[in-house]
User: Fold these one by one.
Assistant:
Number 1:
Amino acid sequence: MKKLILVAILSMFILSSGFGAGLINNVPLSQSSICTGDTITLKFYVTDNGTVPTYAPYTTYTVYYYNSGSPSATTTSIPCTSWYTQSSPGVIKFAIPSSSTTRTYKLFVRWMGSGIPPSPPTIVVNPLPTISIITDNPNYLCSGQTAMLTASGARTYSWSTTDRKSVV
């Protein structure tokens, strides 16, 4: 009898709180890689057995990320005041954590009670490149003189001359 009452109370808690009922659907990311320190926009919506939940939302939506091991919650969160739908998804801007090495992160949005999505979106986070520019004239330029600039450390370059080569 005690077990039956406990199960009934636990079931009422789960049904009334929504704990574990809703599923956060994370929209695929618009890009596959980004530099450390950049910001990415995460979009998501909530379903409960394929439809918008009928119970009231509560708490906050929070961004989680991880490289390996357990997901880490971030301080990036928004109040959970309404359910977001596929046609009108929620949006959170997330600052990518700093890293000195290339890492692949899994990013996803959760709310209290939702589980980790089965296939969270992933993104490759690249460290900022170390760029250097050298010149063939080591000291200074006088009016009318020219210098050749050589850049290194990146794949592409953008000079004020609109050239995209590493030497101008």
Note: The longest strand covers residues 39-47.
Number 2:
Amino acid sequence: MSFNITNSRGQTVAVVGDGTINTSATDLALIGKDYAFYGEPQNENYVYLLENFAKPTAPAHPILGQMWYNSTTNVMSVYNGTGWTALTNQSTLGTMSIQDASGVTITGGTISGVTVSNITALAVADGGTGGNTAADARVNLGVPSNSGTGATGAWAIDITGTATGLSENLPVSRLNSGTNASSGTFWRGDGTWSVGVSGASGPQGASGATGATGPQGATGVGAAGATGIGATGATGPEGATGATGATGTGATGATGATGVQGSTGPNGATGATGPSSCTVLYDGNINTGTTYSVSVVAGRPVQIFLQYSGIQGGVAYIDVTFSWGIGSLTNTKTYYGTTVNYVVTADPSLLTYVTPVSNSTFYFKIDQTNLIYTTGRACVSQF
């Protein structure tokens, strides 16, 4: 009887037949009743469970809740029905430096044993400060020191190079607090906003030479006036319709005389000669055990006469079977006879009729047992 293997939830995992082993339903070999070589796969199942299927690649046929130890990354994972999830609490597996990066997530709390002295600072080029102290960070980032309520020191600003780095305007409030600053003043070198002084008028320039006379313009050409068109005269009125003439009515003609009767027509042609009353299709000897056939036409009865005469072949009984039919040997009749001094006392024969419904083939045959002669007699006719 087959084993029906179910999981903890009562669901069928596999049906294992007698004398067979199933290695495709799960990653363990499921052994059926009377399986001859069960020892090796059964012991391997124990080893796989002990080591949690430890290997570099995931098991091929996992089931819900199955554990797998990745021997390359040293990470334990569990199968959730659709994929493998690494176990997050693996503090006893080693240091964080050897953990799978995608399997380590820090969401809060503190990390004990971590001090400034044993942490390598993140470089400025990588987005860090490059220092383990606030002073080192300010130096590396070029930020002045900050104590109390204000900053001390000077910002180190590099304005060398192209002007692309100086695209913003300096607010006027930064220059003497913007006092007297307006659209008509400028910032002077002595630190004040002042109105600009107009410069002296320059000397008048010399008169320019008279220009040459321009060429005469082209003679203008007026457009021709439009051609006048007179209006078409109105159509005259339509003439009146003439009066309808009177309708003439002739008298009815007299009835014609009755015609003379025609002469009698000639006799029709003589019809074709009809079929003869009987057509012999076969008349002669036939060999026993051989099927014979003739063509027959629809609607005309077919008469078959079969007869067999012979000498007994050494026993006190004989039998003769006649077979016939339209399209195939569908009819049979067997005669069981006796013999006197090895001669058949009554020759078996058959006389019957069939009528084909369509043009077809008529078959007939004689079979015999315990007779010496191998020929019979047949006559087939159609009326």
Note: The mean pLDDT is 78.
Number 3:
Amino acid sequence: MTDTAINSFPLENADVSKLYTEKAAGNLVRTSIDKFASSVSGAATGQTFYVDASGNVVKRTIGSNGAIMVASSGLPDWLAPGSSTAVLYANASAAPTWSGTGTNGQTLVLNGVVPTWTTLPSPSYSLIQSQTGSGVAAIDFTTGFDSTYDEYVFVLIGVYPSTAGSRIQMRLSVDAGASFLATAYEYSSYGVAAGAASSNTSTSTTEVPLGDTATGPNNAAASAMAGTVRLILTATKAAFFAQTYHKTAVPQINAMTLSGGRDTASRANGVRFLTSSGNINGTIRMYGVKNS
């Protein structure tokens, strides 16, 4: 109601038997209480009322459980409840609409302008386990090797020996860690140490070197090794690919790339990380790369 309408309205002439409402022009008009009362008569519990375009008080039918009242062509209307997991949104015409339903694990994404429940592709890498060793003889992974993955990635974070210059190494197992193979590894590596490049090749060694074949990291976290080892398994072979970086005890910066493999009597199902002398420290995470 505008101030003008209030100021110009002759309250001394008001009829207490009337309801007063403001029209668009700002003038007050009288509506019969009896007229409103007749509209309300017979109303059911939970019923609502609205004024139509002619100024009449109209009863709105009762909506079903879960229904939501929305405006439709300027009048209140009930929007039927949506199904479980449905989301209310405004469609291209700005009308309230329920989305489709989703299932466990799905994510709500926009498909054009329509929110849609969608199953997102799962990550290709799955964390299987993470281990942290502090002055231990070895860090072993003996579970998580199954048909779900043919390829595994080991991420080395801050790995260093307790004995300065001791080399970081890897061995495989075919009996879930009851023993680890200590023969017949083949590899070729290329490394850079203090600006000088070197290459190494072996057709039969007792372990897989994951750094400088002569000098390993210093025995301090600041010189620790960081890198990745990728392992691909078949029923009779294991292929490995490594990229590592560390500082030696000299100190020298050492970066190395290695590839190699080993024939196995059966599919490898265990990996051991150890040093050439003394204990090992650091964190190693094992990831599986999904086959599909």
Note: Residues 3-86 form one domain.
Number 4:
Amino acid sequence: MISFHTIRVALAALFVLGTPSYAQTEVSIGVFRVIEQPRIVDGKEILVEVLEPADSAGPGTKLTYRISLDNQDDVPATDISMVLPVDKNVTYLENSLSASTTLTDAVSVDGGATYGNLSDLTVAENEKTRPATVDDITNLKFEVPELAAGEKATIDYSITVD
């Protein structure tokens, strides 16, 4: 079982906000369990995925991390860079990244020493190298080039608990 109270604090401490224009940008992180709830749409009941706050999770649970950015200043925030560790007890879900703003993303498989696209990275194993897989990811890196004055944005990605 993983508890998220301390993980949220640790993740928040790992953000590096480079804002040459000195804009005040608030960053918050939430951890959510994805659940399906019935809804009536056009007279038919359908199941929709909703996010419910998660304080803990067991093996096999899918969780979504939501990073919220809020530029509370009257000037753009630029060069916002976030580096997040991926706990060894979870697996990042490939292609789960979505964002409401323009960003670039990269992963690391060596504890944050180097970053790139997963398909371009390799791992040394038994005196040989092999292509890296999602199980090898140790860190995520997101870079937002600019967040306009007063703009809010979200970045979501999902993991499963091993």
Note: The CA atoms of residues 121 and 132 lie 6 Å apart.
